[in-house]
């Protein structure tokens, strides 16, 4: 306060390094949810590609609003990113575009195309919460219309959270692009054409239908007479699906790659008693290209603790060349076992048997072990 800042706060700090970082972060945030028939990555010598949807060009959704809003110095929309990518490769692939409202035009360019890329989006803000998990704006109908004329449909979703996907089984590919920022188009092009191998994982679960989520009554949200009932308690996100034995469409921690991985040889070292517990697991890239996997560690508490069935307590991302194996180490400090005792008003460790689950998502945990406190 003694030395106030000078200059113009509205001036963006731009540099080539900043732009490269923005692209790297945006690219790394794309989550590959579905890839039937290995339709992705796309070859860069296809005859023609149809790009459909307002989100691809006319009204791209790349940022959040309210506290999540930033002033973009520029925005590369998906259509620009795709055309620029192919142009830089001197590819002869023809790219055609149709807006969401132009269903007739969209069907025309989709018919006979080697691939149809449908871009859809939702947004929200403080005070403007989403009233439904549906895509809305007839975007589901747009996807269905494209599937009717072409079997090779890939859906790219820009969203701050999960959306309902009634068309999931009918499309070949699904990418959750989230809110990638100014390098949106360049980032999605790198993922679609395989320059970047997807490594991101879902930070939420995607339900099959709206009635299966934890908060699904008016009493819970928006509440009655300005009072909301938090009846879900500790069962937030994947914990709800586990406790209620509901299978989501895509679970928390899920995310595909253009290669494949195997986890093996789980080894738990030490015991939690005023110090850390450590474990190691072998991860092997069993595919034909380099990529990254995220080893996820979930912990099941003794029944007397009253905790959800299992909870994420550690994770580690490992980059591997094709055929490479590496030992991954994860540490569990004792405080991650603490639960709150409302009677004693302090944190404590519940005695009993704990179960360790290791895998690549909250629902795919092939390696298990246990320890007793």
Q: Would you spell out the secondary-structure blueprint of this structure?
A:
Layout: H1 16-28, E1 31-35, E2 48-52, H2 78-88, E3 94-98, H3 103-110, E4 115-121, H4 139-149, E5 153-158, E6 173-176, H5 184-192, H6 238-243, E7 261-269, E8 277-285, E9 291-300, E10 311-320, E11 325-332, E12 338-341, E13 346-349, E14 353-359, E15 367-372
Parallel strand pairs: 2-3, 2-4, 4-5, 5-6
Antiparallel strand pairs: 1-6, 7-8, 8-11, 9-10, 9-14, 12-13, 14-15
CATH topology of the largest domain: Rossmann fold
CA-based shape:
globular
Give the low-pLDDT segments.
none
Query: Order of strands across the biggest sheet?
Result: 1-6-5-4-2-3
Reading off the top of the CATH hierarchy, the class of the largest domain is best stated as Alpha Beta
How large is the share of residues in beta strands? 25-35%
Helix/strand order: HEEHEHEHEEHHEEEEEEEEE
Portion of residues in helices? 10-25%
For this structure, the quaternary state is single chain
Summarize the biggest pleated sheet.
Answer: 6 strands, mixed
Q: Tell me the radius of gyration.
A: 23 Å
Q: Number of helical runs?
A: 6
Q: What is the CATH-assigned architecture of the largest domain? A: 3-Layer(aba) Sandwich
* Cα-to-Cα separation, first versus last residue: 52 Å
What number of domains? 2
